[in-house]
Design goal:
By secondary structure, the protein is mainly alpha-helical. Helices cover 76% and strands 0% of the residues. Helix 3 packs antiparallel against helix 10 and helix 6 runs parallel beside helix 8.
Length: 265
């Protein structure tokens, strides 16, 4: 066979796995693999933690009780700290965070970013629905304190505040990071997202209405939901075809703007 014929056959063969992984046209497949792997890796520790809670594992119970008692003693001696935690936990409660997410969805729809708006909606709805369902399945009681500084109804694991705060932090980063160009602004956005998730979860333990493992479970479940919905939407985009992406990396928002320019709209 001639050299030209060999080259023709090689060109006709599908690219190897390594070449596909490095090919920009196959970047979506790599992102899908990473998102699915992340969802699995986060879901495993959450499942293990839930199993330990269900079995009332003694070491975990001792740590939970020790942290709760220490923070409760501090709260009794520092009323201002309790007030701060109450304000924070009310401002970043699930309902206010969902209201803000709805505003973000409306903003995205007005900019033509329908897919991103649907992802935000799906992420918040799926995560918000899993929390109450898992609470009923696990049926863990909240901490019992002699002189509580706050009260909350329902079961304890996982923490709904921690779960929804993690979801909101993920939405904040996914939606707004593409619009932030300066390094300092990007750092500020990451810090804001971390504060929303971390301090909201810690406020529930500080007020004595959740154990530490409840909050960690909420964080892990939130991360798993974000990774899972991201993977699902990557598959959906692969089946519905590529969308043009604006140079600023704005995802669907940039795609919508590119569509308008191409059609003269």
């Amino acid at each position: 066979m001639s050299t030209s014929g060999t080259r023709t056959l090689e060109a006709a063969r599908p690219p190897s796995w390594r070449r596909r992984r490095l090919d920009p046209d196959h970047a979506r497949g790599l992102r899908l693999t990473l998102a699915a792997t992340a969802a699995f890796l986060v879901l495993v520790p959450f499942s293990l933690l839930a199993l330990l809670v269900l079995r009332a594992w003694t070491p975990l119970r001792r740590v939970d009780e020790a942290v709760t008692e220490a923070l409760h003693a501090y709260a009794l001696d520092h009323p201002a700290w309790v007030t701060l935690m109450r304000v924070w936990t009310d401002v970043f409660a699930p309902m206010p965070l969902r209201a803000v997410a709805l505003l973000v969805v409306i903003w995205l729809l007005r900019r033509g970013a329908r897919r991103l708006a649907l992802w935000v909606t799906t992420t918040m709805v799926v995560g918000g629905s899993l929390g109450p369902l898992l609470k009923l399945l696990v049926g863990r009681d909240r901490p019992e304190l002699l002189d509580p500084v706050a009260r909350a109804a329902g079961y304890s694991f996982p923490s709904g505040h921690a779960l929804n705060a993690a979801l909101a932090a993920g939405v904040l980063l996914v939606v707004f990071l593409p619009y932030v160009g300066r390094a300092a602004a990007r750092v500020a956005l990451w810090v804001a997202a971390a504060l929303i998730a971390v301090v909201t979860g810690l406020s529930r333990v500080a007020l004595g209405v959740h154990f530490t493992s409840d909050v960690v479970g909420g964080w892990l479940l939130g991360l798993a939901v974000i990774a899972a919905t991201a993977a699902a939407f990557t598959i959906w985009r692969a089946h519905t075809g590529p969308r043009p992406v604006h140079r600023d990396g704005g995802g669907d928002v940039g795609a919508a703007e590119a569509d308008k320019r191409s059609t003269g709209g």
